[in-house]
């Protein structure tokens, strides 16, 4: 693809990307406002409820590395179709008050999202290599919008449909809609044997590359914060005295605020020599939002959720942007995406689990605030390294190198 981008031809692809991205957060954010209701209905402990927030994030990491392998054998388009089908079926299974289908569906939801999310950066890098960072911002904005809808509509849907099971299960309709659109509008060619000049590509070992680990560390630490917020923010706000519905809407408002920086952060990052100033600014907003929401008077809650949303939306957008900017081609982007999201999400799963354990043994928010700020500090440390103008590439002998951009 040349430097001149034909946006008219790419418009259908972008529309499909947005529709797919809309499905990758409601399955996670719709659960959080319902946790207290689920706990009371099923008699689960705080640690058992914590598993519901940790299990899908852990599965994001476990199943993300499967995406490159499935792509090699099925093709990227067929793999994404399979993941969307799995997501719709998992959401249907999860809509159950019996523990086994509830937890099994939650596990499969994480598997489907892990595979789907890993494919997106490589697909964008393949279709639009010159503007991949900006398009990454567009579909990240769609991810945030889906998360906001899931958080804000969870309680109203449950009340309207008469049960939390139907409220959670209704999101399967959106997944099946995306599957139908993707199957009908996107060609699904079978994979062919590569004939390019990179026969050693499958032997590339990113695990030995410092830059790959820096991107992975940033992805993992900021994702831990994101999934703690998705899984526990409404519960924490309810502990501060807010009602179930208001806590859900505050989460929705925070995620809605992510839309602004999810789209704007990649543009802002282009103004500097590298991405470090932008990421540090965003993480500072995240830290300020956490402190306001958990420690400041409740009258400050709306500025707090807006700051938190602005910080987290841009931080996640920059995490996906770093994957495409630090990769010289779509194949490396796919491998880096698999590593960053696979290992990163596995590390991120410790965040919601840790919060669940702390809530089991303490009611104070001071320790929780310190833990969240520690994740912010870890993300900042990784960003100072991953945000430099470096790129993974292959030398003429097919060996992995880190080059200056």
Automatic annotation (TrEMBL):
Keyword rRNA-binding in annotation: no
Domain of life of the native organism: Bacteria
Annotated InterPro entries: MFS (IPR011701), MFS_Cyanate_Porter (IPR052524), MFS_dom (IPR020846), MFS_trans_sf (IPR036259)
Pfam families noted in UniProt: MFS_1
PROSITE patterns: MFS
Ranges of residues in domain Major facilitator superfamily (MFS) profile: 13-390
TM regions (residue ranges): 45-67, 102-124, 136-158, 164-184, 211-235, 247-268, 280-298, 304-325, 337-359, 365-386
Protein name as catalogued: MFS transporter
């Amino acid at each position: 693809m040349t430097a001149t981008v034909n946006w008219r031809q790419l418009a259908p692809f972008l529309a499909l990307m947005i529709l797919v991205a809309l499905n990758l957060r409601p399955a996670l954010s719709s659960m959080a406002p319902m946790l207290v209701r689920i706990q009371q209905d099923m008699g689960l402990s705080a640690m058992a409820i914590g598993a519901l927030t940790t299990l899908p994030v852990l599965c994001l990491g476990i199943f993300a590395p499967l995406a490159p392998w499935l792509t090699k054998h099925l093709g990227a388009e067929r793999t994404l179709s399979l993941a969307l089908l799995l997501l719709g079926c998992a959401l249907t299974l999860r809509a159950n008050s019996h523990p086994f289908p509830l937890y099994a569906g939650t596990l499969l939801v994480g598997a489907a999202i892990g595979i789907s999310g890993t494919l997106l950066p490589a697909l964008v890098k393949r279709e639009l290599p010159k503007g991949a960072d900006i398009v990454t911002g567009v579909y990240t904005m769609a991810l945030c919008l889906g998360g906001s809808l899931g958080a804000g509509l969870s309680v109203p849907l449950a009340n309207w449909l008469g049960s939390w099971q139907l409220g959670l299960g209704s999101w399967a309709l959106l997944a099946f809609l995306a599957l139908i659109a993707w199957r009908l509008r996107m060609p699904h060619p079978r994979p062919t044997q590569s004939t390019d000049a990179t026969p050693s590509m499958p032997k590339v070992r990113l695990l030995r590359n410092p830059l790959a680990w820096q991107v992975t560390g940033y992805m993992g630490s900021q994702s831990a914060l994101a999934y703690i917020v998705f899984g526990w923010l409404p519960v924490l706000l309810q502990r501060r005295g807010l009602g179930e519905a208001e806590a859900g809407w505050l989460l929705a408002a925070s995620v809605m605020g992510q839309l602004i920086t999810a789209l704007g952060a990649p543009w802002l990052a282009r103004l500097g020599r590298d991405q470090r100033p932008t990421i540090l600014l965003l993480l500072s907003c995240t830290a300020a939002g956490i402190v306001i929401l958990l420690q400041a008077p409740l009258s400050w809650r709306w500025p707090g959720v807006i700051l938190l949303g602005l910080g987290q939306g841009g931080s996640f957008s920059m995490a996906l942007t770093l994957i495409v900017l630090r990769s010289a081609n779509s194949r490396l982007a796919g491998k880096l995406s698999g590593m960053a999201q696979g290992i990163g999400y596995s590390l991120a799963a410790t965040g919601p689990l840790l919060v669940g354990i702390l809530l089991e043994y303490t009611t104070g928010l001071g320790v929780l605030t310190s833990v969240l700020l520690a994740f912010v500090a870890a993300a900042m440390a990784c960003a100072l390294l991953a945000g430099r103008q470096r790129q993974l590439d292959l030398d003429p002998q097919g060996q992995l190198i880190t080059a200056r951009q």
